[in-house]
Amino acid sequence: MRNVTTHKLADWVSVIPEKLSDEVTEQDVAIFNKITNTSLSAEQQRRISHPTRVFPRQQSVLAVHWHPEFIPMPLIEQRIAAAYPAMSQSLVIPTQHNELLNLGDYAGVEVDCYSRGFNQKVQLLLHFEKSRVETADHLKAMLAHTFKYRSSQLFEFIETITRPKTERLNRAAQETGANNALIQFVRVYVRRIEKMIDRQINEIPPAMLKNKILRNFFDELREPYGDALIDRVQAFLKTVKAIVKANFSLRYFYRTSEIIEEARALHAGIVIPHPEQFWPILLANYDIDGIEAWNPQSQKYTQFLISVIRRNRHLPGSRELLVFMGDDTHMAEKIRDPHLQDTEKAGREIGWQPAWDDFSICKALINADTNREKAIEQYKQRLAA
Questions:
Q1: Count of CB atoms situated within 10 Å of the CB of 217
Q2: Predicted TM-score of the model (pTM)
Q3: For the chain, domain boundaries
Q4: Which of 59, 163, 238, 292 is 20 to 30 A from 153, comparing alpha carbons?
């Protein structure tokens, strides 16, 4: 998505209608159906199966933190094969948020959970040989509960705007410079979105009931209202969303220890992703296999994290910690209209983690006696044990 630009007040205020009805229009329905549709056009299928970047020299592909979303796996497999024509070694496992998915011989998931020791939501990557989870009914029930609860954040986001939580909105307005006219504009359209969700709740694919449904809807209003106003709207919505997430109750998530216990019973591999977002987890001494030292959102402390993993990999009574990198690719971003894409997210590729080949980081990897090839083989061995 485009960066929010600075405009004179009149540039965006002047296009806000004085009166807007809460009634849903045909245009609203068309937009809503477009952004909640999971079928792909021929052009979208081509975009997935034909990557814009190819890595002809990369022979080893490690991808254990990425999100297929609603993109069909066969198209993703075509993309991976096209992106890495020299691939001779690989470990590629999908990690959908709170939904167990398979690819080849493996299954994976990224789970939201609650670490009571430092009162924070954290996430874990769980990886399995596919046969281990074919009848894992209890784990699947835990994930279904977590998926449903995490999805409920969308409704809190919506209700913060439509049934105003004044303190939250005032704070977002102060941080983004939103005035009453803009807030009312947002509220009217979010009410319309709420009505359409309520009308179609049983037909909307569960994977589409996410916070970004608001972002995607307002992006489709750029044509009638212009970039200046919608950029302001998106900045305001992003801030409201952050406030909602910060205040979202953690009590209904499973505890981290509960998720780990269930995963280990199924011989899972367990990796901590993007630890920059919750540093205390590194001190929690959880029973894990490794830590993600780099991903597109967490690059600042990569060398430090590798050194931490190296120092702690042989602690008495603990299993050897492995170094991982995660591309954190979100495949659905690639099928959005190019002018509406989040450029940074759309540029991510499954298995492309340039930190493995960064000359300064390579020194830290050598000191830790690891590389991408070793990580693949060591983790495969653990998943097979």
A1: 21
A2: 0.91
A3: 9-35+150-246, 62-71+94-135+266-384
A4: 292
